[in-house]
Amino acid sequence: MRVATNNPTLNLETKYRREMWRKIRKDKWYYLLLLPGIIYFLVFRYGPMWGILIAFKNYMPFLGFWKSPWVGFQNFEDFFANPDFFKLLRNTLLISFYNLIFTFPAPIILALLLNEVKNALFKRTVQTLVYIPHFISMTIVVSLTYIFLTTQGGFVNNWLYEHMGRKIQFLTDPKWFRPLIIIQTIWKETGWGTIIFLAALTNINPSLYEAAIVDGAKRWQQMRYITLPCLMPTVIILLILRLGGILDTGFEQIYLMMNSLNREVADVFDTYVYTMGIARGAFSYSTAVGLFKSIVGIVLIQLSNLLARKVSDISLF
């Protein structure tokens, strides 16, 4: 015998579930299109996450994952007590800080400049040219750097020797390592980064500019009081995402540019994980280092998102 209920909360929940399933049945083919993406993330993103347990074990390949002994936080303690920890932290943070200061604003500035170009053909040509470096492998970028800057026949050093009578050790002098990394990143990624900002600029209501022109606003005033404020939500969201990856400096670029003479300033968390995990076989230790990076990234995303929400009412979530 079914007992009737007059509970309004249960009735609302029942109606909500029925409405939800009705929408799912109605849009079932859209949800079916989501299925490959969901499977991809489950298999290749969430599935491998069980492997972080290795960070809390003394993993031995001949014993296997389950039979390797637990060591708790020993790997983390060894990492924090390692004399290399502060060197790695300093190098990683410095490169990330320089990237944040110089490479993050570069696409914004370029997008603002391109937005002011009225000649459509010239604008499309410039956009195409600045997009191309993004599709060039970092290996090729580093190879070009070596070709131009090497002391053994490099174009730049040949010019310096002819005009100044000396050569500069760009590739081995530690003080040149970080500037070269930043210059490479700016050249390779600035054009590609403008895509998001140019898309955001196209969404600005043209009537705002028309009203500003009527009020006598010049081009710089229009950019200051209309363009930049309308672009700010996109900038804040991307800045939050960038802060979340502040300990990710790019393994390939750093590893290819690093040598025995500049290692003191070039060695970062990414290269250290490779050296300890792949070259030396310390799988548990390197996993602990990688997990530390991930935790720091999550914390920074949360804090920066909270700060952005309080300061500007714009946040990622």
UniProtKB/TrEMBL annotation:
Xref: SUPFAM superfamilies: MetI-like
Predominant localisation class: membrane
GO biological process: transmembrane transport
Gene3D superfamilies in the record: MetI-like
Membrane topology, as annotated: Multi-pass membrane protein
Pfam family, one: BPD_transp_1
Keyword line: Membrane, Transmembrane, Transmembrane helix, Transport
Domain of life: Bacteria
Regions that span the bilayer: 29-56, 93-114, 126-149, 181-204, 225-247, 282-301
InterPro entries: MetI-like, MetI-like_sf
Keyword Membrane recorded: yes
Gene Ontology terms: cellular component: plasma membrane
Domain spans labelled ABC transmembrane type-1: 89-304
Cellular location(s): Cell membrane; Membrane
Family assignment from sequence similarity: Belongs to the binding-protein-dependent transport system permease family.
Record's protein name: Carbohydrate ABC transporter membrane protein 1, CUT1 family
Organism: Caldicoprobacter faecalis
